[in-house]
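[step 3/7] inverse_fold.run input=structure_tokens len=239
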């Protein structure tokens, strides 16, 4: 295969990765707290003999969109949404993680946990406790929890020190490799959840564009394959 074929193959590979990302976005358009992903394409240039160069495109870097999603009212006592730049702090077996998905529930011990059973933490890294026998629970915009009118704890709101260090660990969890700090200015709303920030129409349109671009590349590869076959047949016949 000549250099033109290799260049097209790298383009096709990147388009396939982007198609997978876009399909995942569409599948999670209704997932609470989900953050839309995209692919960043880069160019690799390699010098070759004769002073020429070979350029290949690669789509290997995933980029997450952290724009605010729509807040949906649920009325749930332990449903929370964040307005502004902030995340809930969650304790997982892999370490502390950040998330915007705020649908929690108390476990049998009274600790506030995610649907997967991971503990919700306060700003100091301790599990958030809710008295099991409390008749009324209220949470203020700064995360302070009151049980029957008495303060019992505070849900931590944090943000990464370096936003560029955020990496997705699962569909809804992120790792802040550079550390995190209190999210000043962020507000918590009880009885609400934040919907996915995926734009379904935009993602469907992008999926169509990717499909057309992939088909064009495949058509080119088929044409190149046919050209090479004809050239080889002509050479064999001439001999």
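[step 3/7] decode complete -> sequence:
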């Amino acid at each position: 295969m000549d250099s033109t074929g290799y260049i097209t193959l790298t383009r096709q590979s990147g388009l396939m990765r982007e198609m997978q990302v876009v399909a995942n976005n569409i599948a999670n358009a209704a997932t609470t707290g989900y953050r839309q992903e995209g692919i960043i394409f880069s160019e690799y240039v390699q010098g070759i003999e004769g002073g020429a160069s070979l350029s290949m495109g690669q789509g290997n870097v995933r980029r997450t969109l952290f724009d605010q999603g729509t807040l949906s009212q649920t009325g749930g006592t332990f449903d929370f949404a964040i307005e502004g730049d902030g995340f809930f702090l969650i304790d997982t077996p892999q370490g502390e993680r950040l998330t915007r998905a705020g649908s929690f529930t108390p476990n049998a011990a009274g600790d506030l946990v995610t649907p997967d059973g991971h503990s919700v933490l306060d700003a100091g890294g301790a599990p958030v406790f809710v008295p099991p026998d409390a008749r009324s629970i209220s949470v203020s915009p700064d995360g302070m929890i009151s049980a029957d009118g008495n303060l019992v704890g505070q849900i931590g709101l944090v943000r990464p020190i370096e936003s560029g260090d955020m990496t997705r660990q699962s569909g809804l969890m992120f790792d802040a490799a550079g550390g995190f700090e209190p999210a000043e200015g962020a507000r918590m709303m009880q009885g609400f959840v934040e919907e996915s920030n995926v734009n379904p129409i935009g993602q469907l349109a992008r999926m169509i564009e990717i499909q057309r671009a992939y088909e064009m590349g495949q058509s080119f590869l088929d044409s190149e394959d046919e050209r090479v076959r004809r050239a080889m047949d002509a050479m064999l016949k001439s001999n």
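[step 4/7] annotate
The chain is about 25% helix and 35% strand.
The two ends are 23 Å apart (CA to CA).
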